[in-house]
Amino acid sequence: MLITPAIVALQLIALSVVGTVLLAAGFAWKILHRWDIHSGSELQLRLERRTYLISTLLGFALGAELLSLLLFAQTAESLSGQFVGAMCATGVLNVNPFGFPTLLLKIALFFLAALWLLLNRVDNRGYDYPLVRVKYGLLLTLAPLALLEGAVQTRFFLGLEPEVITSCCGSLFSAAGQGVAAELAGFPARPALALFYAMAGLLLIMGLAFRRWPRLGPVFAAVNLLTFAVAITAIVAFLSLYVYENPNHHCPFCLLKAGYDYVGYALYLPLFAATAAGMGAGIIAPFRRIVSLQATIPGEVRRLTRLALAGFGVFYGLATWLMLRSNLILLG
């Protein structure tokens, strides 16, 4: 096993998240079954006092969980020089069977944690805790994933043996290979490009429609998630080719390297932030009819929608600029 400051930090974050979520899960069960805002019982008063403390602890823990995705990707990239055959994060994640599952769990937890934090922010602005059951119900969904992520991440780091010879992006993200990565790499560039910009148009139209008709919130959230999936597909299918100026190099992780000006961070950060904001706006919009939130949610939804559209705008603008400046002629 390799021990670096980043690995220690990631394990400490995982332990703190698991510990906090487990503590809160027991409290969430009581909230779901015993919460009655109209009751003046001693139990209800105790629950109201404790929800402040639990929500604050969860805010710190889930905030750290958001950052751990970035730290995990950066750590995997930085360890690529430690393994024979690894040239980027792909090779490190391939060292044992737990690398990519850890990454996928972190991505899922990133969006769930962001949604919980948004729900908590809105709930705290209502005088009667109107979303308390919703956010603690979400927490019970999030808790098993946090436990699984902690366990899988620990197995991944424990299995990082420097003598292992690993395979890297050249074999995984190859159109001639097998699996999801190979399917993405083999996606024809022309239809992928058309789909990429069609999703941008659909997202813009849905964003404008959602601002006018808030009842479209769930649809807007779904379009944001779909746009995220199309964007990841586009990065593997053709955008990475333009950056590397190589028609056979599809790796989405080499974009994080200094040799490519760390352009991956400039792409992924607005993409993830925009998706989380857009999904959050769409999911909290249906709660606008709750009396105690009628003054809060419209402004919150407008702010999140602007953030989502701006974030996707940055992503699409940068992606387009990367293609225009490239010397690669992919579409003849």
Could you walk me through the main structural features you see in this protein, from its secondary elements to its overall organization?
This protein is an all-alpha fold and about 325 residues long. The chain contains eleven helices and no strands. Helix 4 (about 100-125) runs antiparallel to helix 5 (about 130-160). The relative contact order is 0.11. The mean pLDDT is about 90.
* Number of distinct beta strands: 0
The number of helical runs is: 11
Q: Overall 3D geometry? A: flat
Helix content, binned percent? over 70%
- Which structural category do the helix and sheet elements fall into? mainly alpha
- What is the alpha-carbon Rg in Å? 22 Å
Cα(first) to Cα(last) distance is: 48 Å
Strand content: under 5%
The largest sheet is: none
Q: How confident is the prediction overall: mean pLDDT?
A: 92
In sequence order, what are the helices and strands, one letter per element? HHHHHHHHHHH
Q: Unreliable runs, pLDDT <50, ≥5 residues?
A: none
